[in-house]
Amino acid sequence: MGTIKQGILGGFSGKVGTVVGSTWKSVHYMRALAVSINNPRTQKQQSQRVKFAKAVDFVKSMTPFLRFGYKGYSTHQSPFNAAVSYIMKHALKGSGTNISIDYSKALVTRGSLMPVLDATVTVNQSKASFSWTDNSGMGDAVATDSAMLLAYNKIKRMSVYTMVIATRSTGKAELVLPTSWSNDALAIYLGFCNVDATNTANSLCLQDTPVDDDSQGGNSGNGDGGKDDDPLG
Questions:
Q1: Which residues contact 93 (CB under 8 A, 6 or more apart)?
Q2: What stretch of H or E contains 23?
Q3: Per the domain annotation, does 106 fall within a domain?
Q4: N or C: which end of the chain has fewer CB within 10 A?
Q5: Looking at the structure, do residues 85 and 176 belong to the same domain, yes or no?
Q6: Close Cβ partners of 215 (under 8 Å, ≥ 6 residues apart)
């Protein structure tokens, strides 16, 4: 039975007939009860579950980082859920149950802040060295914007990251990698946030090493930054 706490026009919690009421972050929601189906494992449902599992498995290794990277999307959902939603919509490839992450399209930071230009990364032993062109004054970019660095290990399904280690005007930064990662396939990202962390730039995927590539030392990549045309998509 549902309970109305704010009068007949207020939100409610619990079940009333075929409707369930709940509240999250002071926002009231209503949803219909799930419809019982004869075959809960249709091909479409299995595909959706695989997509969800792939997205969650990717982002769960970087949850603290996402609290800043997706902070602008946390009004009606958690940054974690916002990241999962984006990955499922924009950064998966394959069909049916043969689904995988398209790391080049994944965003680990997301927002309307101007990204940097001519960004590159070089991996040498246990260090990822980033460099970029300072474009302070272009759009809303300012010299004090902080770099957000992240490397994801596709084999071990782990992430290492750091924030506020360098500014936009510095033009370079380093991320220490575990020594045990030397022969693993990595996806490496560079993002930026403003000084009070109220806005972030879309991250750039600067390296996307194939899993079957055993020689990663010295691999480098570059990314072209662009603002998110549809920040709500």
A1: 99, 100, 101, 102
A2: strand 19-24
A3: no
A4: N
A5: no
A6: 183
Give the contacts of 132 (CB within 8 A, at least 6 positions apart). Answer: 116, 117, 118, 119, 120, 168, 171, 172, 190
Cα 35 off chain centre by: 32
Pair 138, 203: CB distance under 8 Å:
no
In this prediction the pTM is 0.76
Residue 232: both structure tokens together: 């709500």
List per-residue pLDDT tens for the chain, 233 residues long: 555 565 555 666 677 666 777 776 667 666 776 655 555 678 888 889 999 999 999 999 999 999 999 999 988 899 999 999 999 999 999 988 899 999 999 999 999 999 999 999 999 989 999 999 999 999 999 999 999 999 999 999 999 999 888 999 999 999 999 999 988 999 999 999 999 989 999 999 999 999 874 443 444 455 544 444 333 33
Q: Is 177 found in the same domain as 133?
A: yes
Q: 228 lies in a domain? A: no
Range of the domain at 22: 3-32
Distance CA(222)–CA(18), nearest Å, equals 53
